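User: I'm putting together notes for a lab meeting next week and I want to include a structural view of one of the chains we've been expressing. I don't have a solved structure, so I'd like a prediction I can at least talk through. The sequence is below, exactly as it appears in our construct file.
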Amino acid sequence: MTLEEKRARRRERARAAYARDPEKFRKRSRENRLKPGAAERIRERNRAAYARDPEKFRKQSRENRLKPGAAERHKEYLKAWTLRNAERVKALRKVKYEEDRAGNIEKARVWKKRNPAKVLASQRSRASVNRDRNRAARKAWVKRNPAAALESFKRYREHNREKIRARLAVSKEGREKRRVLWANQDAIIEIYRQAELMTQSTGRLHVVDHIIPLQGRTVSGLHVETNLRVIEHHENARKHNSWESPGWQGPGDEDEAALVAVPRQGSLF
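Assistant: Thanks for the context. Below is the predicted structure for the 269-residue chain, given as structure tokens.
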């Protein structure tokens, strides 16, 4: 009897024993996998079997991929494996990327050109997670590159005129809702005159600022004379729609409030 015949005979006996009591062999297999060094032994055994007959395993793999639901199961397996080996995957990807850095950069550029919708969705998802970091980086870049920033702003306005008009329409509608009939219109007009006078006398642009923004994130004010002041344009642009004043902090922010000596906006009433 040849060696192959002996192996075939042992396989037949093992299959017959498994068919008589499959649960016994499944339990034994689970116990064996938990023993120290079992994972390494299984990998070595599988590699040796593949080396003896690689075509057999390739054929089996092709047949398995054609079975119903095989693609979904493979994707789930890959996801789970990637999560279990996150550091290893990261290191492998970095090494692979550095092998052909210029080629990978060019491939990424071509892919982004072919898939603008996916790129935009990815950028938006990352922007929501890293909002503060992106804002700080953007401010630093604008400070380092004022000329390039002006060109960037100009291009954005040219390419997004409809979006800007829609945003201004919404802003105007929201501002209209903050106007009240009992406001002193004469006092409001006088404040705007004062801003114009200060612009002419100092040579620096002054504007009328709402101490409590009309469309703030946490609190909104009204378009009334007690909520207006005259400040320089650059300060108003820096302030945007924020209001930093003690007494309006959220729960747990009382310690930060103590750092503010006086309200920057002054008193509303």
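A couple of points you could mention at the meeting. Residues 93-141 form one domain. Strands lie at 206-210, 228-232.

User: Perfect, that's what I needed.
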